[in-house]
Amino acid sequence: MQPDSTRYLFALICKEDQMVKRPGSRFLTILVALSSVLMLFASACAPQGTPTTSNTSKPQRGGIWVDDLFNEPDALIPNASVQTFANMVDGTLYSALFEGDASGQIHPALATELPTQQNGGISSDLKTWKFTLKPGLKWSDGQPLNADDVYFSWKTWTNPSFAAASTVAFRLIESADVSSDKLSITFHLSKPYAPFIASWTDGALAPLPKHHFESMNPADIKKTEGLDPQVTSGPFKMKESKPGDHYTVVRNDNYYLASQGLPYLDEIVFRAVPSQDTILKDLQAGTADSAWFLDVTKTPSYKALSNYEIVTNPSASYEGLHINSNNPIFKDINVRKAMAMAIDRQQLQQVARLGQAIPLCTDHGPAYHPGYQQDLQCPPFDIAGANKVLDDAGWKLGSDNVRQKGGQRLEFQYSTTANNRWREKDQALIQADFAKIGIKLDITNYPGSTFFGPFLKGGQPGKYDLAEWASSYTYDPDDAASFACNQIPPHGQNLNFFCDPNLDQLFQQEQAISDPTQRQQVFNQIHQAMLDKLPFIGLYNLIDLEIHKKGTHNYKPGPFANSETVGAAQWWCDNGKCPA
């Protein structure tokens, strides 16, 4: 789960599109014909990031591309991880029914077309969906890839023992029919679900190989091949898996676009580099061809690298201070409210992010259409007001300057991903602000694979109280997966352990609407409910920083899901030899 974005005025975004990372429309513009006009409108301003070096020469096949991967992946099986860096590697290993591009638009991949009401792929009530696959598809081992694999994936992901990263859409499936030729599958949902296509988009939500996994207990799939998948469908397949060091993927000759000469590269080496300092050293030594999600505090050093090109674009993710609702102290809404008022968001944006952020206090930034709410009133930065809220709620300041009430102290653990310099600055700033209102924060950080795995999913108060990370919702603004009651672990990814039946009703409403204007009205209600209940405190929308070496081409990170590796099948290097 990574980054965040907010949007000022639509006109401002059009003007500043080179600073927006996760651009374009997140909404299912492909759902119904009505949305085509909106899609054109959104696309016109969709931020594309800083363009890479123009090169009119023909792409060359060959080369080994080295990418520094900040954070160790925790699983490389579709729908087995919420971690962005795992999903990025998934994007090279697996082909999904649909895939996104650098502007955030969805296109058919293994599927022949995007289903619509006009072509009969979607029923008018949004409860029946038909996906048709291309004929002759193969897995990396040469076995047929067809609708049976899609059916098997749905059944596996809804098996609790698999512990899928996302189940919201798949739990709604009541039944599915596979055609006799195994080239199409029709899903029947228990209720309307507008984001259904987004639930099958990009490598992290690609089909699983039935023939390879059907004899295995779902609980054993990740245990057996979690970081070393043997059968894949994407442009690459696993060549060497060395957890903690590197993951090398090599060209898959059975890739569905292999006849078009893709992928261009022979291999990609993803080096697990847990330190931003090490990434900078690699770039200075010229031993990496690319790196994503860079430390903005090192921007002057990156700019000094004459043999690299920097890419910046606004993320689709929101950076949030997440609150573990399992901690009984947080049942007091006054504590949550005081914390929200005590955070100086402007200082975070200017000091920690060096201006590489956009104001945002909810979970939908400017990349979402619908989703983003321009007129939202955020909690004010008001230390005096925050102190009054706690005073009125009976939280008394002790001799150690920490507030207490009924034997409970306002002292919490505050964690984030380790070795992230700008997040460490966020922590220091928020720690200092909270001290001004009598809240003590103790900081303990964890490696990404631990943080997004057992630490957050464990939900243990006193260990996980407050945690900072960035999140986004792939290609649709539906946010039920992060906040719905039925998504609390171990069955989902509601890592705030927050439950509000009224909010659940709003999620159901927006999921049943295809009209963007009507859907936006429901999202506005969701935003207000979140600001009233505060399951998390929105900090800002990230503007991400990436880099690639001159002599490498088509490096265009996208706003969602695969992120850095969007279009990796089309990466290529001069003369078929990558420079690193």
From TrEMBL:
Organism: Ktedonobacter racemifer DSM 44963
UniProt similarity note: Belongs to the bacterial solute-binding protein 5 family.
Protein name: Extracellular solute-binding protein family 5
Molecular-function GO terms, alphabetical: peptide transmembrane transporter activity
GO biological process, one term: peptide transport
Keywords: Signal, Transport
InterPro entries found in the cross-reference section: Peptide/Ni-bd (IPR030678), SBP_5 (IPR039424), SBP_5_dom (IPR000914)
Domain (Solute-binding protein family) ranges: 105-480
Cellular component, GO annotation: ATP-binding cassette (ABC) transporter complex; periplasmic space
